[in-house]
TrEMBL record:
Organism per entry: Magallana gigas (Pacific oyster)
Pfam family, one: VWA
Gene Ontology CC terms, in alphabetical order: voltage-gated calcium channel complex
Annotated region described as Disordered, given as residue ranges: 1112-1146
Protein name, per record: VWFA domain-containing protein
Signal peptide (residue range): 1-18
Amino acid sequence: MLSYPILIAFLLPCLSNAQDVSQLTGQKFSDELERMDINGIGAPNLQNYYDSLIYDKQTDTGTDIVIKMTDNLAQMFQTMTNQLRNVKDAIEQEYDDFSTTVQNIFPQCCKIKGTYSPKFRTEVSETRACISQSPPPNHFPNKKIEDVMKSNYQNNPNLLWQYFGGSDGTFLVFPAHRFSDNCFSYDPRLRQYYVATAANKPKDVVVAVDVSGVTATRSNYNSKTLLIVAREAVQYVIDTLNPNDRIGLVAFNDKAKRPLSCHGTQLAKATTSNKKILQDFTKTWTSEGNSNYSAGIEAAFSYFVSSEAEPQRNTRESVILFLAAGDNSGEDPLDVIKDENEARNNSVTILTYSFGIGISSSWRELLTNMSKQVKNDNPYGHKIKEGTYTHMVNHSLLHSKMSSYYKDLSITNLGDEPVFSVPYVDERSAKTGLISSLCLPVDKLGGLVGVTCTDILLDELLSDITNFKQGELSYAFMIDGQGRVMVHYLQPTPNAITINPDPIDIYTLETSPEAKPMIESMKRGENGTKTFKHLRTISRGILEYEGIEAREVEAEYSWRKVPGTNFSLCVVLGKNDQQSRLNQNQELLVKKGVFYYHRLDLNTKPTQKCREYQRYSTIEHSMVMLSPHAFVKPYEYLYRNETHAEVVAYSRYLNDETEFQANENLKLKENVKTSIQATYKAEEFWKQNQDQSQFVVWRYLGTRDGHVRVYPAVEISKDYDHFMRPWWRRTVAQKGKFVVVSPYLDNWGAGLIVTQCKAVYEGRSYGSHSKADIVDVVQCIDYPYPYFSRMFLNTYPECNSDEYRCMVIDISGFLVIYPSFSVVADEPDIELKHLGMMERNIMQELLNEKIIEKESCLDIETKKQFFSYRVLLSDLDEPVNKLLTKGYKISPVPKSNIYIIIKRKDRLSPGTCCPFSNISPLENTCSGTDCCLCHKIVPYDSCQEKTTSGQPYHICSARLPDSNVRVDRELDKIKSLSPCFDGQCDARKNEQNCYKVAGCSWCVQDNVGIEYTPDNQCCNIFETCPFGKVEDQKQTSCLKMKMETSKNSSSEVLIVATSGVAGGVVIILIIVLITVKYRNRTQRQNENPDYLTAVSENVVYSRTNEIQYLSGEAEKPSQMNQYSSMSTSSDGSGNCPVDNTQKVQT
């Protein structure tokens, strides 16, 4: 027979779960988010303040802006060109005095030991040059060349590397650095910059290689086979080419073989992708058969289209490099050359080579005649371009001879116009991003003696464009004379690129039909203005996970050629998208004490320091971090080590102690000062609402003017760019809403957090705003995930059920709250978990019902079509309740980007629509019917640089750089500091109260993963047991808990030793009491949800530095549920809630 105590225990939780989940809506949780927006974030307070401020409307037109930007660029180019000519002149004057033997004037680069430079992103010696040589050099530069380079660098710190590559293989570079351990491996003559400068035309190069059986014999070069030597030589030739050049490749024996796809039928631009395809083709070669010269030369000519327009042939140099290893077994190749080249007006030069012992003297004569094209006529004035023939006795020199083919063409460049290279990644330090080289040929007595260059970071050169922030829909881009994109908002920023990219044609990114006349005008170097509509791509966050929004925008395009170059710049201003600026002279702005720099170690103002999690901090100020966008010269700020004097200069200017900026190179933009003064209002609010610091981790904001403010103050990485962060992008894309960011591990050491943000608009005196307004500020708070999930469960106690499971998703389908997120782990794997991964059947049902839709865009960088998802319910729509028929219900949370989903556990199985749930969309290829985050490879003709599917695509926004780097722990700084906000974790006796403040964690397992018994579990600071498991070498009070709790064992459950009618009366009375109690509790929750203010309203406080803390005596009973229990189970099941509204006994 069931005893009364057991029966009572059984009925208690079940009676408290009486509310029907079918009545659940998102309104109550919206109220909670709004309350935290008001009391925690402070966005309404800051918006009201901004509405009271005075703004100055910008009057610059697109034409005004483009003129300023192109003039600035022209000045930078001219400065670089003048300095480059200084080096060229010095070399030409001193060349005769260059030593023919090593004089030990310069150290060898392979032996340099420098110090790390943030600008060069490698170790350098900035006081000297170094030398490298490729044997046998005979002209070593003297000290005067170094002096000129050093003077250039002192006068223009924007310069990166300066160097001279001699025609004999000598290489001098400033500043000195160790770019190779081999002192003789670097040959400048085989590099793209050298070849592009030494030759005054772009080149069409076809290489035909003999792969007959004779190439299986050993060479005299390290016993390699002739085939391997030939393959290496071809790869060297390919490496000399840049994207202005085109290439084709033929392997021949009895028959000719060419690569598959377009690379076997047409010349391909020498881009990174095409080079790799052709180099991979060389790896398929095998030695077999005989040498059929005719087959090889005919296949080589097929790449040159005979119908190609004459002007095109006149502006390009066409050449065939023909390498033979055996005697000819086919027909006379001279007849083929006559027919094919005369059809092309003798425009192709032939250079022939042979190696090995398999070629007799008679066939060497044939190769000579092939290069001279002895059977060809000179019809109608089209003169034959005679080539050369070389037999390579030393096989180790084959690669250098063939890759120096440009010397045997009549295209030597001896001019004085600089050659600007196609952007590339510096092999000396890939961390610098894209660079470009500005080069000049160096001649002596009409002969080329070398090439001198200077490099510049493309991010520095084009900083005016990449940092252009006129509004949310406006942007700028630049192309060269061929229409290739130099910079565009749909491409990654130059400093984020780490592998050589393929050039992109501007028509790929600017797809509006009305853009075509404008683009052709830009390519011709003309100026103009035109207004038309186009689709503007808006980033929604992380591209491969969240996709884009395509919005039609009317915009004014203003374009102008950059004087002295072949570049053209365009500024695109969206209609009504010009950002106003805060007036600098208004009384409402606080001007003193508004700026406290984030470098706490360099600040001189005395402050009381504390530790916030594992960070060195203070609560006396919020800190301000100046992003690169705040500076007139962003690169000057990024690539230098900050000093105390510079921080003092920032502080004096921004705290209005002086009107002048001390350092011209670190000059801030005009609007930054007033913007910092305006956001000081947020610091005042945060400090006035200190009690909210009990519930949240960080409070912060980012502004369109380029600064970040964080409370408590903490140092941030110098290259932190809030415009690249998902919290900024998501909030701007969904402005007007409470934007909740799904859980992630805090980079600043606070564990698992959830972010809530709100956009603050540019001020309006009438105080009314719409989504068309420009966002000035994004303001956010970070919650500990356990606190946020409990806030949700406190709002919806009906979710604590064995029959239902509740979860929260954002508008892209990512889980914000989910039962298994509370599982104990060393480091939880919960970031970017999608509904399609975790609840596949629900995902499939929502897709079928068109509640969620699938969208896609084309990522030009990877040639992948990424698929993402959107919830189509608006925040004003009624819930969709299909609990009875389909087993789920989805309810929008008004004014937010999130949705509540309720699932019946007995109706929906996990499902199978996403079989590979834990694979990144970058790696997960879509199948036919899946609901995963995935991609499809887009058919792409890399020769023509266009897709071939015939399907129109929205172009994706640029993928975000991987900036999710954990900040190093500051243990040495904080080991003796008190916590900024002491939550008194050790005094909290149950899990519910442990997670009611930020910074505490309920310890469930010891450091080796053994689970404590329930009465031995305890509360500690997060650093001791993050995610419920004790860290190694950390001590907890968990083992003491049993002794403390055993003292109260005499007051456990009251045993009712009655029976019959008396026992029944007791049970009925208890049921009535519980029912009344639950109704009262529900009524109080509906009238005044108190979870966020429960601590300040219902408990006893202790005060430390005027901040309120929860006392150990004021504990509430634990409310156990599927989210609050940090257990090792991942099934999401939990217990019904226990009433937590009883009075505290003190």
